[in-house]
Amino acid sequence: MYPLYGLTMYHIENPYHCIEMKKITRDDLYILVRHSNLGAEEVGHALKKNVYHDKDAWQKFVKQLLISLGLGFAVAGIVFFFAYNWANLHKFAKIGLAEGLLITAASCALFFKNRTVKNIILTVAAMLVGVLFAVFGQIYQTGANAYDFFLAWTIFITLWVVVANFAPLWLLYLILINTTFSLYAEQVASNWSSVLVMSILFAINALALFIFILISKFWQQLNVPKWFLQLLAVAVACCATIGISIGIFERYTPAFPILILATLLAYGLGIKEGLASKKIFYLAVISLSTIVIGSSLLLKVSHGEGMFLLVSLFIVAAVTLVIKNLLHLQKKWINE
Prior knowledge:
Elements lengths: L8 H5 L12 H9 L5 H11 L4 H30 L6 H21 L3 H26 L5 H11 L1 H7 L2 H21 L6 H25 L7 H24 L5 H23 L2 H22 L3 H31 L1
Helix pairs in contact: 4-6, 5-6, 6-7, 7-9, 9-10, 10-11, 10-12, 11-12, 11-13, 12-13, 13-14
């Protein structure tokens, strides 16, 4: 037994028996090693039991990966099948095949007991909804704008997305929302400025990121993956960077100062979240975005050869400084 703040080695081996700490993480074990007399054997056993993935976990991962790849290739094969045999198929055969595949996928999602496999199949079914709408539009030549297709696709899978609460399905849903709005701005609201369009996309993705961060903090049973939050953070940073860079070079629009203020607020919250949760990723993304925006400001001043040299030096110096500070910060967090 190795007592530490009311915890013992028994608690490490059986984390669910511990009131103070429900789950042992790698960081928790680092703290235990620094502030206790645990030996290498006990630490290795705790790492193996609570941190490292065992054979069953790897088998589960490989199984889900192969299922996802197989179903993804199947959807791609369906799309290419319609594209290659389009002229030789009767219109009822086209719609019948698309509907039959969709019904089959949705039925399989209902009858599978494994929740992860069920959600993967449901994601395939959501993609087949788009295939069905595309086939229908090509057969009857509805003449609708491209955004109508993505809007209908988004609306008709909304219930599945909410019920399944599966991160890849949410990712598909957000991609569809962004695509729908982008095509609407291009085909219908063509008088909107590029800065306004990027500002609205920034708001959409920032709101989604904010909601999912809150869910991950206060509703942990929903299990929001880190990669999903990181992809949303990249999307937010890209929208902000592109929008501000366009606003720097284009003539003034009312949306430009609003986007700057919103970006400052979002980046401030991102830095606070990164420092509080000790996550380098958010700090790195914000730093890279800031470097790109700074380079745009310099190029706005002049387009001469000397300015291009200055921008190159600025990027090299800024990236070097950011990497140095992030590595120092990471080392500091590890040693705390």
